[in-house]
């Protein structure tokens, strides 16, 4: 027995007890005849008092026994702040060399150094809280779904490569030379097979893999809460997972989210927020003003399919310099606008605009009114192709919301986006892609268009697909699936996947559908991001115990790495990379 | 809404209600004016009554609405057996082609066919029960460990190849050409790093991978309950996981296992049961009779290091033929004995033995007494090198226990094996191997031998290592780990791993130990086998939703498979296997 109590446990009521603690030395303060040591473990910090000046260094692991005393100067900031331990006996369990950075709430170590010594960074309170939250959320998810009759069923990690969508990680098979397994990008087909197999309600918190060029805050391996249900319609799925989210918020954070969670069609989301994942913590909605701008001789607007605007509250006093900066900001390639038009709604009721030349005060007033701008607001206008311009306005809106402090990470505004288009036309490839994935069913009332050969018919087919959005981030999504073999074949046809190709890649699921597949649907949440957002953070890295960097490397273990020639030979593989 | 109730839900108290069910057609019985259909889902079976003879085939998915009636001839075998639904309206949700085998408690399909159509085999009640049990056990594990303050922390799947022990599956890195990740054989090093990081109590139900030539009932991917604790001694670990097992047995099976679970040293287990995983559901222990056999002129015994025996209850009437068969059985290469000596303890008090020539009745009586044989028993004797002969006797003991019906899968006899030797000498390789793994600590009282250079000293070092054994199967094991960098280096030295090699493969963990690693220990359970044994089965295959066959293939999805040349090129790989 190494300890009688943890370092977070003792209170004034324990006064007089003889206790043994074990943990890490956080700080040492020596006063010659006496040394104060803050001893830390996962549960808290307790002050130890030693006679004299024993050898003591940061991160030493010690075991100390002594009596619990009442402190003369109490520390109200920590739960153990009323007491201290007068140490009568102690052992070094392990000494420590000096850590390369400070292990405190805020560290002095740079990102690379902390990544290399991840096991030391993980000692810091913010990371301990992040992983504790992740643990709590995982248990809440499982308890909720277990209580709803879901079965957690493990699906395989060594599956088959299906190069539709993102790139697979592959695993050479030694026992089947020349052949490869793939790591799953998601258990999509397996969960659908479980529905065919009659399991009715399935879930799994499961690792998924995607060999993509890593954008910021993407990981090659990530975790999904993966769920599927049989004999359900969209309404059943949304209600079930609203319940899950509500429970998670309530039990893990003590936060009660809106009931019901608002829903918005994809088309509305694009029109009003310029995004399929709107941040509805604040308004500042996008308004179309195309009609109001026509026929005033301003060629830029007249030649645009769409003119739209947002009203930024209280920003009418923006200076020339600020407006120039904003114009440069929207012209960056990340936004891609050609320019920015503004209308200042001055507090005195007048308007000042960069297009005064073409539009009189009444015209400007009408535009401002269309945007629900009030005196003191700044109207920002972009124009161009409709969806593209809306998207730019959406980006601008989020930026302005951030500048105005509307994006408080402690405020939670969840939202369902519904009625997605089923298909997305790629001009570049001259073909349709599935907006969600090729197993998503068209809405029953749109099936007539789904079987049409006309592009415009196919473009207006909607799916019973849905995304769960929180604070402008898509946390999850799903759909009602195709459960009919003929409809699935039609889907592959629409996507330009040949029968041969479809049979090779998805033959087993097409075949499975012939044996009585039930109507089914489901969804998946990105668990890493769920944890980050619940934790009030924008990036997922601190919510993953051992993340990889942007080159897909784990710099702590120095992986990936070269392997032995013996291993290569056993796998019947040769590398085409030249050494050096 | 596809259904108002499941197929397992309705009772006589629901009589008169109008309900809607959805499910699969299990059986159809037509009587011209009336058709009876058993409708099945995960929750049960309900009888439907249709007017006339609608088209209805096995495994059709239908939705049916009607009134709940009391049956005239009730079926007491199923919970819904008192009622039936008089169908007034129904839809085909999906028709089915005729399934390739019967989907019932016992199927008429062969193993290969059922593997190919796994999603149909998974509809059968025994597999549904198996996966439901697995789900239940997973939740019980998590609830117990969560309640004990353990944190579930996910460790990475893309790690680094460390070719010590079994062969790794590797994953080529496209972004780091020529380099590979490895899939983890276990999260061993990561969980130890989590202890270094101060997480104190960790667990995970996690997939592990081993590229081994598959013996019967091994899978290339398998699931572990993986746990680790800090500031613990062996006693703390054993108590914690006894509690877990007790909770699992109680909550999932309603079975109360012995409290405390018995413990046995590895040496005792070998001496008494000839196995490090004894089946203690029955006695029939091994007894050494070497001393009693010496000096009677029987060269075979006199020339043997060890003579041991078991007493088989009530088998003294074995015929010549039965004894010959048994002799052949122990001579098979799987057992490897050179021959078998028997002593019949006749019910009249006399003895009859194959070694009557050398040993008189009193000698035989003494041997029988040493084995605690009673009148009517059959004593079976083997001789040779000590451990090898004990192992053979152990195999024979289990075989005889099985023949006598002592191995009831509904009886649960758990056991801890403790005090394992730390090291195992390989004559073949002329080096020591770690009996558990290279991170296992020697017992503190044996450290003096651990630092000795003498082989015989190293051989007697014991570890605080432990295995959890149930009914003759090892379900899990673990140890108190080394937490001292110098001791870990010594371990690598003893195992003949060069400093260079150790640094390359384990540098990050050796380094981590320099920064205040706490004393820690843990264990892992093989979850697939836990589920199988709890389910009263010997094989794990039915407790895994989508298992692979003995060639490591998933025949349902036909994986592994060839991948595109584009993928190979992106990975900078060439296959040395010639096509065709």
What CATH calls the topology of the domain at 282-403 in chain A is Gyrase A, domain 2
Described by its quaternary structure, the protein is homodimer
The helix content of chain A, as a percent range, equals: 25-40%
Mean pLDDT of chain A: 95
The helix/strand class of chain A is alpha+beta
- Compute the CA-based radius of gyration of chain A: 30 Å
Strand order of the largest sheet of chain A: 6-9-10-22-21-20-17-11
Q: Can you say what the CATH homologous superfamily of the domain at 282-403 in chain A is? A: GAD-like domain
**CATH C-level category of the domain at 282-403 in chain A:** Alpha Beta
Number of helices of chain A: 17
Largest interface (CB < 8 Å): A-B, 124 and 124 residues
At CATH level 2, the architecture of the domain at 282-403 in chain A is 2-Layer Sandwich
Give an overview in words.
The structure is a homodimer of 580-residue chains. The two termini of chain A are 53 Å apart. Chain A is of the alpha+beta class and 580 residues long. In chain A, helix 3 packs across helix 5, helix 6 (266-273) packs across helix 11 (386-403) and helix 14 (485-494) packs antiparallel against helix 15. In chain A, the strands form five sheets. Chain A has an eight-stranded mixed β-sheet with strand order 6-9-10-22-21-20-17-11, sandwiched between helices. Chain A has a five-stranded mixed barrel with strand order 1-2-3-5-4. The longest helix of chain A has 23 residues, at 125-147. Chain A has helices at 111-116, 118-121, 125-147, 188-196, 234-253, 266-273, 290-293, 299-302, 320-331, 361-370, 386-403, 447-450, 455-459, 485-494, 499-512, 527-534, 565-570, and strands at 18-30, 34-41, 44-51, 61-70, 83-94, 151-152, 170-172, 180-182, 201-209, 221-230, 263-265, 287-288, 306-312, 341-345, 351-353, 378-384, 414-418, 423-426, 431-434, 465-470, 473-480, 520-526, 573-575. The relative contact order of chain A is 0.10.
């Amino acid at each position: 027995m190494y300890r009688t109590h943890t370092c977070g446990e003792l209170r004034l009521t324990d006064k007089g007890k003889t206790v043994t603690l074990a943990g890490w030395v956080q700080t040492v303060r020596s006063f010659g005849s006496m040394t104060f040591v803050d001893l830390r473990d996962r549960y808290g910090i307790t002050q130890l008092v030693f006679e004299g000046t024993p050898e003591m260094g940061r991160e030493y692991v010690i075991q100390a026994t002594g009596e619990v005393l009442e402190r003369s100067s109490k520390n109200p900031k920590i739960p153990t702040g009323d007491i201290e331990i007068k140490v009568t006996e102690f052992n070094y369990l392990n000494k420590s060399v000096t850590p390369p950075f400070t292990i405190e709430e805020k560290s002095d170590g740079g990102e690379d150094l902390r990544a290399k010594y991840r096991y030391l960074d993980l000692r810091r309170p913010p990371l301990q809280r992040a992983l504790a939250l992740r643990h709590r959320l995982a248990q809440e998810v499982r308890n909720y779904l277990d209580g709803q009759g879901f079965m957690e069923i493990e699906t395989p990690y060594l599956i088959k490569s299906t190069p539709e969508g993102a790139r697979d990680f592959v695993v050479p098979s030694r026992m089947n030379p020349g052949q490869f397994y793939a790591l799953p990008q998601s258990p999509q087909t397996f969960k659908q097979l479980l529905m065919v197999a009659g399991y009715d309600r399935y879930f799994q918190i499961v690792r998924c893999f995607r060999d993509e060029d890593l954008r910021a805050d993407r990981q090659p391996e990530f975790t999904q809460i993966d769920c599927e249900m049989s004999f359900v319609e969209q309404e059943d799925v949304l209600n079930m997972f609203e319940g899950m989210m509500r429970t998670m918020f309530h039990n893990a954070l003590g936060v009660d989210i809106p009931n019901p969670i608002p829903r918005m069609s994809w088309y509305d989301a694009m029109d009003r927020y310029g995004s399929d994942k709107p941040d509805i913590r604040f308004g500042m909605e996008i308004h179309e003003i195309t009609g109001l701008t026509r026929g005033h001789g301003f060629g830029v607007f007249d030649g645009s399919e769409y003119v739209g605007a947002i009203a930024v509250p209280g920003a009418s006093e923006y200076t020339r310099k600020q407006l120039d900066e904003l114009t440069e900001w929207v012209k960056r390639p990340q936004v891609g606008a050609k320019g920015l038009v503004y209308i200042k709604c001055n507090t005195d009721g007048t308007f000042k605009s960069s297009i005064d030349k073409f539009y009189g005060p009444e015209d400007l007033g009408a535009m401002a009114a269309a945007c629900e701008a009030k005196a003191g607001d700044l109207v920002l206008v972009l124009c161009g192709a409709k969806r593209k311009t809306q998207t730019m306005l959406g980006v601008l809106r989020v930026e302005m919301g951030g500048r105005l402090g509307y994006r408080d990470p402690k405020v939670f505004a969840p939202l369902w986006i519904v009625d997605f288009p089923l298909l997305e036309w790629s001009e570049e490839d001259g073909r349709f892609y599935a907006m969600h994935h090729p197993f998503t069913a068209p809405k029953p009332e749109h099936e007539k268009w789904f079987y049409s050969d006309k592009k415009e018919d196919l473009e207006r087919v909607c799916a019973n697909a849905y995304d769960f959005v929180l604070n402008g981030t898509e946390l999850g999504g799903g759909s009602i699936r195709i459960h009919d073999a003929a409809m699935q074949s039609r889907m592959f046809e629409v996507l330009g996947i040949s029968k041969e190709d479809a049979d090779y890649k998805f033959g087993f699921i097409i075949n499975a559908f012939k044996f009585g597949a039930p109507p089914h649907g489901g969804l998946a949440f990105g668990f890493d991001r769920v944890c980050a957002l619940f934790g009030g953070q924008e990036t997922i890295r601190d919510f993953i115990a051992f993340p990889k960097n942007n080159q897909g490397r784990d710099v702590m273990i120095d992986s990936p790495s070269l392997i032995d020639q013996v291993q290569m030979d056993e796998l019947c593989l040769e590398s085409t990379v030249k050494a050096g």
